[in-house]
Amino acid sequence: MQVHADYALDQRSTLALRARAAAFISATRTEDLLRAVLWSQDSGMPLLPLGEGSNIVFAGDVDAALLQVDIRGRKLLRKREGCAELRIGAGENWHQLVAWTLEQGYYGLENLALIPGTVGAAPIQNIGAYGVELSRFLRRVHAVDLESGAPMVLDAAQCQLGYRDSVFKHRLRDKVAIHAVELALPLSPDPQLRYPALGQYLEQQGIGTPTPVEVFEAVVAIRSARLPDPAREPNAGSFFKNPVVSRAHAEALRADHPELPVFPAAGDSCKLAAAWLIERCGWKGHREHGVGVHPGHALVLVNYGGNDGAVLLALAEAIRESVAERFGVDLEIEPRIYGGDR
Ligand SMILES: Cc1cc2nc3c(=O)[nH]c(=O)nc-3n(C[C@H](O)[C@H](O)[C@H](O)COP(=O)(O)OP(=O)(O)OC[C@H]3O[C@@H](n4cnc5c(N)ncnc54)[C@H](O)[C@@H]3O)c2cc1C
């Protein structure tokens, strides 16, 4: 295990923001995590776990050691009750895992194709897309406590997965490094086609009863056409969560704006399309100081070369304020923010 001091982070997040970390450690084995904890105890420098940096904003220099979890491995534990139970190393790339599971005849992850990042980060915000969330398949998370080095195993209920949410954003925020994830994937296909864009795309292709591989290919095609590639236009995907409001609030907004997309959510609440609210406030395509809102996707903020996380966050704040003022809705930033004074 090597500790790199004063480490440039420009290449460590898909937003490619300029910042430095006090230290950087890459862990390729579980033992490395324990060594990193001992080093942290000795040096007094806190550890912050990192995957592929696709859901992170570096708002400035980070006064901590970034601990990149690069532990690999894919293992079939058993087949039971119609499911393949797998244990996957946290450093595995998520999309490559999805493709591999389909090759093995393990189904369910096809709607989650092409989501950037690692397997270990997937439970942090309960990744979701095209009507499916990780929570449907997660069995267990294996982690190490970053203060004591103690091993931890959390079952799905203990992970408290919600919409882009989990215990790792609350009680266990920045407190554990996940080194493996267990999934249970059905051995029989059960395509989930409720998401309108997906159903419409398959219909246009003349595919009535798609196989999981056809769903995977459809998701890849839709995402490739719609979402800006971070390699060319550095971004962190959706910058804001879709806000959840009371049904009464949603109905009041709908009365004034009949075209506002509203989706049913848990209990007596509704989810609104954040992209629509942002676009209506005139932000789509807006640019300032080398950052901006993507012209094709109002939820995506792009680093056009400004490279300054604080400037990007100032733009995000201006967007939040205008949406709050016009619609009375609070937008919540989705990516995790590190550095600066955060
Ligand atoms: C173009 C684009 C499209 C996207 N589309 C989607 C989408 O459709 N749905 C969706 O849900 N997300 C989406 N995202 C967000 C992102 O892909 C996910 O949040 C992903 O899980 C982040 O993985 P990562 O390895 O890059 O994590 P990072 O960005 O490196 O880290 C994210 C958070 O997880 C923590 N973390 C990372 N690894 C570990 C670990 N091993 N143990 C403990 N904590 C850890 C970090 O400390 C940080 O708080 C998109 C992002 C981009 C850039």
From TrEMBL:
<dbReference type="GO" id="GO:0008360">
    <property type="term" value="P:regulation of cell shape"/>
</dbReference>
<dbReference type="InterPro" id="IPR016167">
    <property type="entry name" value="FAD-bd_PCMH_sub1"/>
</dbReference>
<keyword id="KW-0131">Cell cycle</keyword>
<keyword id="KW-0285">Flavoprotein</keyword>
<dbReference type="GO" id="GO:0005829">
    <property type="term" value="C:cytosol"/>
</dbReference>
<keyword id="KW-0274">FAD</keyword>
<dbReference type="Pfam" id="PF02873">
    <property type="entry name" value="MurB_C"/>
</dbReference>
<keyword id="KW-0573">Peptidoglycan synthesis</keyword>
<dbReference type="InterPro" id="IPR036635">
    <property type="entry name" value="MurB_C_sf"/>
</dbReference>
<keyword id="KW-0560">Oxidoreductase</keyword>
<feature type="domain" description="FAD-binding PCMH-type">
    <location>
        <begin position="17"/>
        <end position="188"/>
    </location>
</feature>
<dbReference type="GO" id="GO:0051301">
    <property type="term" value="P:cell division"/>
</dbReference>
<feature type="active site">
    <location>
        <position position="334"/>
    </location>
</feature>
<keyword id="KW-0963">Cytoplasm</keyword>
<keyword id="KW-0133">Cell shape</keyword>
<dbReference type="InterPro" id="IPR016169">
    <property type="entry name" value="FAD-bd_PCMH_sub2"/>
</dbReference>
<comment type="pathway">
    <text>Cell wall biogenesis; peptidoglycan biosynthesis.</text>
</comment>
<dbReference type="InterPro" id="IPR006094">
    <property type="entry name" value="Oxid_FAD_bind_N"/>
</dbReference>
<feature type="active site">
    <location>
        <position position="164"/>
    </location>
</feature>
<dbReference type="InterPro" id="IPR036318">
    <property type="entry name" value="FAD-bd_PCMH-like_sf"/>
</dbReference>
<comment type="function">
    <text>Cell wall formation.</text>
</comment>
<dbReference type="Pfam" id="PF01565">
    <property type="entry name" value="FAD_binding_4"/>
</dbReference>
<comment type="similarity">
    <text>Belongs to the MurB family.</text>
</comment>
<keyword id="KW-0521">NADP</keyword>
<dbReference type="InterPro" id="IPR003170">
    <property type="entry name" value="MurB"/>
</dbReference>
<keyword id="KW-0132">Cell division</keyword>
<protein>
    <recommendedName>
        <fullName>UDP-N-acetylenolpyruvoylglucosamine reductase</fullName>
        <ecNumber>1.3.1.98</ecNumber>
    </recommendedName>
</protein>
<feature type="active site" description="Proton donor">
    <location>
        <position position="238"/>
    </location>
</feature>
<dbReference type="InterPro" id="IPR011601">
    <property type="entry name" value="MurB_C"/>
</dbReference>
<keyword id="KW-0961">Cell wall biogenesis/degradation</keyword>
<dbReference type="GO" id="GO:0009252">
    <property type="term" value="P:peptidoglycan biosynthetic process"/>
</dbReference>
<dbReference type="InterPro" id="IPR016166">
    <property type="entry name" value="FAD-bd_PCMH"/>
</dbReference>
<dbReference type="GO" id="GO:0008762">
    <property type="term" value="F:UDP-N-acetylmuramate dehydrogenase activity"/>
</dbReference>
<dbReference type="GO" id="GO:0071555">
    <property type="term" value="P:cell wall organization"/>
</dbReference>
<dbReference type="GO" id="GO:0071949">
    <property type="term" value="F:FAD binding"/>
</dbReference>
